[in-house]
């Protein structure tokens, strides 16, 4: 326990003031560098995730739907859910405008997820296959996405 290789941090800064968040995140990065640690960093704040993470996995109803290097994911999200999430991240410059993608519908019960793609009940790009068949993971040059939009 004194020299862990992996630390799982579930919402480690979510209840903290922004200035304290920054201090904790910087400390975590320093500790990671000094001790060659790997973090599994679980968070809902995508700005925090971008700051701390080298690779990002996006989950929906307990299923991994997208996985990529942090910058690749933030610059070029592939799954419709990831695109919607990132469109909702506030931009600190009030002069810059961006389109916010709204997600319609109710979140399905995680205890009884829909068949096929778990996101299909809320997806604006839903196809018939999405309703019946769970999507396979597609490799887009090291950027993985589980979505029927990428079927060949």
| Largest sheet data | 4 strands, antiparallel
Shape: globular
Question: Which percent range describes the beta-strand content?
Answer: 15-25%
Distance between the termini: 47 Å
Largest beta sheet: strand ordering: 3-4-6-5
Which structural class fits the helix and strand makeup?
alpha+beta
SSE series: EHEHEEHHHEE
Percent helix range: 25-40%
Task: Count every beta strand, where a strand is a DSSP E run of 2 or more residues.
Answer: 6
In the predicted model, the low-confidence regions spanning at least 5 consecutive residues are: none
Describe it:
The chain has helices at 18-35, 46-52, 70-75, 80-87, 128-132; strands at residues 6-10, 38-42, 55-60, 63-69, 137-139, 144-146. A hairpin with a 4-residue loop joins β5 and β6. It has 2 domains: 1-53, no CATH class; 73-152, no CATH class. It has 152 residues and is an alpha+beta fold. The N and C termini lie far apart (47 Å). The model has no long low-confidence stretch (mean pLDDT 92). The longest helix has 18 residues, at 18-35. Helices cover 29% and strands 19% of the residues. The strands form 2 sheets. The protein has a 4-stranded antiparallel sheet with strand order 3-4-6-5.
């Amino acid at each position: 326990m004194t020299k862990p290789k992996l630390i799982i941090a579930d919402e480690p800064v979510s209840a903290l003031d922004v200035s304290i968040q920054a201090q904790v995140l910087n400390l975590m990065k320093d500790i990671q560098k000094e001790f060659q640690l790997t973090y599994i960093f679980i968070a809902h704040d995508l700005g925090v995730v971008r700051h701390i993470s080298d690779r990002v996995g996006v989950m929906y109803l307990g299923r991994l739907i997208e996985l990529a290097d942090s910058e690749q994911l933030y610059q070029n999200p592939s799954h419709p859910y990831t695109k919607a999430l990132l469109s909702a991240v506030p931009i600190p410059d009030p002069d810059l405008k961006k389109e916010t993608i709204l997600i319609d519908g109710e979140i399905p019960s995680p205890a009884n997820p829909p068949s096929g793609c778990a996101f299909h009940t809320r997806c604006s790009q839903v196809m018939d296959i999405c309703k019946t068949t769970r999507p396979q993971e597609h490799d887009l040059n090291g950027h993985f996405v589980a979505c029927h939009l990428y079927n060949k």
